[in-house]
Amino acid sequence: MTDLTKKYGTMVFSDHVMKQRLPSDTYKKLAETIKEGKPLDLDVANSVAHAMKEWAIEHGATHFAHWFQPLTGITSEKHDAFLDPIGNGTAITKFSGKELIQGEPDASSFPNGGLRATFEARGYSAWDPTSYAFVKDEVLCIPTAFCSYTGEALDKKTPLLRSMAVIDEQSKRVLALFGKHPAKVTVNVGTEQEYFLISEKDYARRQDLMMCGRTLFGAPPCKGQELDEHYFGAIRPTVNDFMKELDDVLWGFAVAAKTKHNEVAPAQHELAPVFCNANRAIDENLLTMEMMKLLASHHGLVCLQHEKPFEGINGSGKHNNWSIGSEDENLLDPGDTPEENLQFLVFLTCVIAAVDDYQDLLRMSVASCGNDHRLGGHEAPPAIISIFLGDELSDIIEALAAGHEAGHAVRESLDFGVAVLPTFDRDTTDRNRTSPFAFTGNKFEFRMPGSSVNVADANTMLDTAVAKALKDFADAMEARGDEPFEVAALSYIRKSLSEHKRILFSGDGYSEEWHEEARRRGLCDFTTTADALPSFVAQKNIDLLSEMGVLSETEVRSRYEVKLEKYNKLMNIEATTMERMARRTYLPVISAYATKIAKGITTVTDAMPAAGMQHERRELSTLLDGVSAIYEGIDALSELHAKAKACECAQEQANCYAHEVAPAMDRLRAAVDAMEPIVAREYWPVPTYDDLLFYV
Ligand code: ADP
Ligand code: MG
Q1: At what angle do helices 456-478 and 157-177 cross, to 10 degrees?
Q2: Which listed ligand is nearest to 259 at the C-alpha?
Q3: Is the pLDDT of residue 632 over 50?
Q4: What count of other Cβ atoms lies within 10 Å of the Cβ of residue 207?
Q5: Ligand 2 ion: Cβ-proximal residues, 5 Å cutoff
Q6: Which residues have C-beta within 8 Å of that of residue 505, sequence separation ≥ 6?
Q7: Which residue has the least CA distance to atom 14 on ligand 1?
Q8: What pLDDT, on a 0 to 100 scale, did the predictor assign at position 418?
Q9: Distance in angstroms (rounded) separating the CA atoms of residues 159 and 177
Q10: CA separation for the pair 319, 330 (Å, rounded)
């Protein structure tokens, strides 16, 4: 046991290490910065930098790096050695406060959506002291925010931190109305990371996996996930070894990896850490994803983090468990006493209002090329956003929205001016796995984000929308005049719920009827990234983000461009890979196999003219039909692909990819996949789904 706990956090410059290693006044000043966001002066930074360097070198570091999250969604780092030659053939180690606080990576190659001309290539990375620095592979990694010379955010962390600040500010205003004054309200996040593991040897033989992270071709395996035997099943020994190493490494980074298990699809797994504040949780998730990829290679495996590596079986998501709270209480906890219920109902109502008002923005925040294959698929939430509250809470909310008492569910005693609501039995059982946004006892679980993305985007939008709803509530209450607070709050809740109840849905999110019902309710249903992205630049969303100080209009527009560009580039890579594989990988072998059968027919009928060979002839004809279908598929795809590439407007190009190129890709795939079960195994040029998913 002691060994286990001793390992935990050894590779992070944690609060515990800081307390031990920093002079006590430095520690105090740094703690104030971390807790209250006070600026750090250079003397303190110098002192922290020195201690950090000494600690890092003891832990094997030779370099330091500002570790940041550019808009690509992947982390970036540039390494600088601690060594500094002093001119006589020797060197000292050096790491100053300035180097800790600010870096100047050449940022010209990072996506910026037109924010920076390349001649003004400088970007600044600024230390984020609220997330721990860590030593990874002999490098001291310092979590940083990344912005342009003119101060615009060029990363995902900066808007996330801004959104957490507005939640803090607005929640405190609301809590003040309840007579509570916590020092800080923070957003807590727990990410459940799904992923696939396949063998490195198989991976290396599939150009689609190597180029796109997903299979562009592949007939269904003999056995898929229909037996439900993989979920929570015994873990393969190789996978188990991988998971053990992963846990060890993550624990070293103070990532509280808690739960690991096999997922529903064969070769699919999940890891969930213990939740923590959103900023750190996202840094941890990015580190976890990086470690998964790296450590898989130690075991002859490849970790696929794409949202839909395999057609016909489940894809991978990253459930984003989200709550807000102060040090003393979780504000989404229904609580046990009526007074707390009113406070809970205020926060719940604000979340409901926020998700309804900004459903398009939330949908946009999870849109990605990979996620297009997942949302609306059988296992994942649909592309329509709705909220599931659970039975008991639904009854109460519906009664409040309708303005009447629902049996014993809502009791009120307005003569005292106090809303007396019943205590809730906390409904922790989540009986609706089809909901994209489900209340699970004392938190919301946003299930739409894809497995490969940085969930900073989703959290930034969610935080900002909720902060706005809290602000509207606080504004209304502060202007309520003589009306008792509880009465005003309750009538605000009723009105808001009746306006937003269309977003609540407890039925089957996969069903056809829900799509119709959602249309009737006026909910948005964007099936592809191309359809979802324009919401980012809708005026009401630009207003929200700029009013709340999370993203300026320029920042929003640049991010929209970056997202479009990324989508178009990925679609281009997929279409190109597909054309190339169809032509160079599949056609030659299908033709060769057809030729072999044709030769067999000729040889046999030469030797024995009476032989009918009708089965062989039929097989040959199927193969030849298949070959022409593939040729036609390639031609059709090439033509539409060329059309997409010729579009000058990025949004038009995205539309063309989503609505013309993608269907042509599906048709070409179908033509190739139809050949797979009839071509001899030794001819087939790539590992099949059976090989990929059921390895030993
Ligand atoms: P599931 O039933 O969805 O598979 P898991 O137990 O795998 O749930 O994961 C739940 C995740 O939610 C964990 O990361 C957990 O730490 C996190 N979580 C629990 N409580 C909260 C909370 N109050 N706020 C945010 N996240 C939370
Ligand atoms: Mg979950």
Answers
A1: 30
A2: 1
A3: yes
A4: 18
A5: 192, 319
A6: 386, 387, 388, 435, 514, 517, 518
A7: 190
A8: 44
A9: 28
A10: 19
Percent above pLDDT 70 for the chain = 93
* Residues 247 and 292 sit within 8 Å (Cβ to Cβ): no
First to last CA, the chain: 32
Asked if residue 405 has pLDDT above 60, the reply is no
The set of residues, in sequence order, having a beta carbon less than 8 Å from that of 511 and lying 6+ positions away, is none
Tens of pLDDT along 499-522? 999 999 998 888 889 999 999 999
Q: Which residues 6+ apart lie within 8 Å of 475 measured at CB?
A: none
Summarize the confidence of residues 301-324 as an average pLDDT: 97
Closest among 358, 331, 341, 528 to 437, alpha carbons compared:
358
User: What is the DSSP secondary structure assignment for residue 660, as one 8-state letter?
Assistant: I
| Ligand 1 atom closest to residue 190's alpha carbon, by position in its atom list | 14
What per-residue confidence (pLDDT) applies to 409? 44
**Which residue has better confidence, 52 or 232?**
52
Pocket flag, ligand 1, residue 168 (CB < 6 Å): no
- 140: tokens are 């001291």
Instruction: Look at residues 48, 61, 46, 45 and name the one whose alpha carbon lies nearest to residue 10.
Output: 61
Mean pLDDT of 240-268: 94
Q: Which residue has the tokens 């959602």?
A: 518
Instruction: Look over the chain and give the mean of its residue pLDDT values, rounded to a whole number.
Output: 92
Q: How many CB atoms lie within 10 A of CB 312?
A: 15
Q: Is 446 in the pocket of ligand 1 (CB under 6 A)?
A: no
Are the C-beta atoms of 389 and 504 separated by less than 8 Å? yes
The dihedrals phi and psi of 130, each to the nearest 5 degrees, come to: -85, 0
Q: What share of the chain is helix, strand, coil (3-state, %, to 5)?
A: 50, 15, 35
Ligand whose nearest atom lies closest to the CA of 270: 1
HEC profile for 280-313? HHHHHHHHHHHHHHHHHHHHCEEEECCCCCCCCC
Q: How far apart are CA 126 and CA 101, in angstroms?
A: 6
Residue corresponding to tokens 């003397």: 43
C-alpha distance from residue 381 to each of 36, 312, 371, 474 (Å) = 38, 16, 11, 33
- Please name the residue whose Cα sits nearest to atom 5 of ligand 1: 272
Could you report the per-residue pLDDT of 414-468, keeping only the tens digit for each? 343 344 455 555 555 556 778 999 999 899 999 999 999 999 999 999 999 999 9
Note the helical H segments in 231-382. Answer: 237-252, 278-296, 338-357, 359-365
The identity of residue 674, as a single letter, is A
| Nearest alpha-carbon partner for 490 in 398, 412, 393 | 412
